[in-house]
């Protein structure tokens, strides 16, 4: 009898907790849908994105990694044909070795010095460029192509013939390039140059964006998580491809080896880098004290972390924000690299990618919190990002100490990730209210 009462009591407690949670969810849903700041920021984001596909004010170039983060909103504010055309220019600019450019610009707008501009006979009107310290160009393009196809159902873009090669075959050429030129056989993971987290600036030369004799080969979670997402994208949009089993096998391999070599089980965080050759770090400097917020966010998007692990790393991000005094979880890294490790103005802590606060990645973490069942936390943690957009009436590229805005004032990557985060929260709220 006592046991029956005990079970009955537990059942009542569970029902009570469930009822309380449902009530809290309904209240949160109403709050989200009534939040005028969210409505304002989404509207402003759409206005900014409607202006074009370049990265933002101060940037005439169209970048794959940027477009990847606002293409879904762009498809709602521009015509499908315009977006399709912008994507196809990337494939026209593909190099003969399969390599993809970072981005492109009309020849008349190519006004800066570049030792190695990229040209293609398939599109003589444009000039391409690439920050060769990075390894996310090919994977960004595949992801944005997948988002385009998913939203428009326009699979015909895969059959577009460019220079005698179909887009779907050019995709495989990109994968071949990565597996040939940026694949470490020992760790069976992609590599790039040592940069701060997802960044495209290496420490020991003035420009910092091109691979050279000062570069250090490094393996990090960001590049490999981006690859996992790209392979998953291909599996989803081309399930009948001849290479489907190869892609599935490669995806599994990258997933296993990323967690095997880059996940620190004891500290429940990703280590910043593996250096297969020479390390650029000062003697005695423990790089593994640094948390990489951006790479961790992309790892969550790729499906590498469980729901429990997502809570752990999110709590770490919040603690890093508290300790740093920075405004939001868009904080790139914490702690920062020491002053002078990077050259130029990025040598200062909390400048640019050395600890600057980037909504461009913070907004993606908000998206992942919603998608993984942490909408309450997402709504709380998006507030600093929303409030500064309202205050500044714009989407700045990054923020320094005391929330000081820097860089482009209309950074479309930031606009895109916030617009999508707001959409996800609104969808959750509407679904919650429909169930009540």
From TrEMBL:
Q: Check the record and name the InterPro entries matching this protein.
A: 6-hairpin_glycosidase_sf, 6hp_glycosidase-like_sf
Which PROSITE patterns does its entry note?
PROKAR_LIPOPROTEIN
Q: Which Gene3D superfamilies match?
A: 1.50.10.10
The source's superkingdom equals: Bacteria
Q: What is this protein called?
A: Amylo-alpha-1,6-glucosidase
